Amino acid sequence: MTESEIESKAGSFIPLTETMFLILLSLLESRHGYGIMQDAVRLSQGRVKIGPGTLYGALNVLVKQGLIERRDEQESEGERRKIYGLTPLGAAVVRIECDRLENLAASARLALNCNAKD
Amino acid sequence: MSEKNSKIVIRFFGAWNDRKEENWLRGLALKGWHLESIAVVFYKFRRGEPADYTYRLDFQSSGKFDRREYLGLFRDAGWDFVGRNGAWYYFRTPTGKGAVPEIHTDTPSRVAKYRRLLLLLVLFMVVLFNNTFNIIGSRAYSGFWIVIQVIQGAIFLFMIYAVIRLALLISKLKKETIGREG
Q1: Do B126 and B93 form a contact (C-beta atoms < 8 A)?
Q2: Are strands B53-59 and B42-47 parallel, antiparallel or unpaired?
Q3: Which of B102, B112, B181 faces A57 most closely, judged by CB atoms?
Q4: Residue B133 belongs to what H/E stretch?
Q5: What distance in Å separates the CA atoms of residue A93 and residue A23, rounded to the nearest whole number?
Q6: What is the DSSP string of chain A?
Q7: d(C-alpha B116, C-alpha B111), whole Å
Q8: Which terminus of chain A, N or C, has less C-beta within 10 A?
Q9: Complex ipTM
Q10: What is the count of structural domains for chain A?
């Protein structure tokens, strides 16, 4: 895929649910499933906890959509865990969603400030 | 004096009633009866210290299901895998003082769980319907085949009921989150 193809395809995944957005965001660095759960808590300042049932389903969906990919397995504490990372398409989706949320929040802030002055 | 250390309870829960089943298991754990294994409608419990455990049931039927990764995620998140009953997976974790622990934390994944179940039920119904039809078409009406047909018919009707209950549950879940991202 060329860069413009990635860009236009990425748009079709927007908007993301909060769960999907946090998973993709956490995968800016490669992580295993448990790492994603911990990072989602950190990124949302403790507000969002992703359950293991939801995470398992979401990882499969994201792999199928081509937004994330499986990397090597990692061995720690006697357990092998699958490592996931973003694909170029997944990285583009995070960036576009971040822009969208930023614009939306900026408009909202403006509207709230205008309202407060009335 | 010897108190029984384990017991087997026979109980049936509809596929749409997993919340009720989870609450029933929690109630027994509070009385010191902890689920050890499940087979169809047989629940085996072991006596122990009364403890507040939250039980959760998940349904996994996919052919590409990676059991090791799946159970690993639950273990990492602090859930004990209790056992499997067909495609149903039973987990428990200490309830704790904060928010009630959940294995599914958004609506799309809750809906997906019941959709997998619904799909499997509909597949079973197609097979059963086909079977009943073949019997009608090819066999003479001896007493034996009539009995078989009546049983199959009853199962079929019950499955229609289960499909309706599941469809209602899915639509209720979706309605709860209209205008939200789940």
Answers
A1: no
A2: unpaired
A3: B112
A4: helix B107-138
A5: 12
A6: --HHHHHHHHHTTPSPPHHHHHHHHHTTS-EEHHHHHHHHHHHTTTS----HHHHHHHHHHHHHHTSEEEEEEEEETTEEEEEEEE-HHHHHHHHHHHHHHHHHHHHHHHHHHHHHH-
A7: 9
A8: C
A9: 0.91
A10: 1
Query: Is pLDDT at B1 greater than 50 in this prediction?
Result: no
Contact B105 A58 (CB under 8 A): no
- Cβ atoms of B83 and B37 closer than 8 Å: yes
> Chain A interface, mutation test: which of B90, B109, B113, most A Cβ atoms within 10 Å?
B109
CA-based nearest residue in chain B for residue A58: B109
For B35-54, give the DSSP string.
Answer: EEEEETTEEEEEE-----EE
Q: What is the CATH number of the domain that holds A73?
A: 1.10.10.10
pTM, entire model: 0.90
Is some CB atom of chain B closer than 8 A to the CB atom of A33? Answer: yes
The yes-or-no verdict on residue A115 having pLDDT over 90 is no
- B-interface mutation test, from A14, A31, A47, A54, most B Cβ less than 10 A away: A54
Domain assignment of residue A61, given as a range: 3-117
Q: Is omega for the bond preceding A15 within 30 degrees of 0, making it cis?
A: yes
